[in-house]
Amino acid sequence: MIEVPAAKLAEFSGLVRCGRGPHGPLGLTLTGTSADPPGEDLSCAFAGLAPADLPAQLEDAVVTRAAPGEYVVASGTRTWRIAARSLHVHREVAKEFYRAIPPRPAPLLRRALFRAMLTLARSRAGIALLRALRAW
After folding, report:
1. DSSP single-letter state for residue 104
2. What pLDDT band is residue 6 in, cutting at 50, 70 and 90?
3. What pLDDT is recorded for position 1?
4. Residue 116 placed within a domain
5. Distance in angstroms (rounded) separating the CA atoms of residues 112 and 40
6. How many Å apart are CA 78 and CA 59, to the nearest integer?
7. In angstroms, what CA-CA distances link 90 with 5, 21, 96, 111, 121?
8. Of 32, 44, 62, 83, which has the fewest Cβ atoms less than 10 A away?
9. Residue 120: which domain range?
10. Residue 25: its pLDDT value, please?
11. Which one, of 72, 65, 50, lies nearest residue 3 by Cα?
12. How many distinct structural domains can be found in the chain?
């Protein structure tokens, strides 16, 4: 048998919520904020059953792989072993994505059209005109 060294897969900072899934393939989901990089939303979904003694909340949890199909969740001085077929780690990267690729400015013609529509929508006569144009 090939030994797999323990590898840190996820590190949480602060409060971590432990959601148990009674139905479906995901038996345990840990949700919180990542420690590195700090401030990102992080969730770990285990395709296996949650340990019976795992509390509803943890503090500063670390998820590592102990062996193929076996993961360890450590929080403070306690550890829990989880037998799972797989682990799905999800990080929220929208903030970094939009920082790297800023949104494209709207074309001048489209901005002028929306400005004209909003100006018309300020009066009853303008609303009536917009309704007539829409029905046309």
Report:
1. P
2. low
3. 43
4. yes
5. 38
6. 11
7. 22, 17, 15, 37, 43
8. 83
9. 104-135
10. 78
11. 65
12. 2
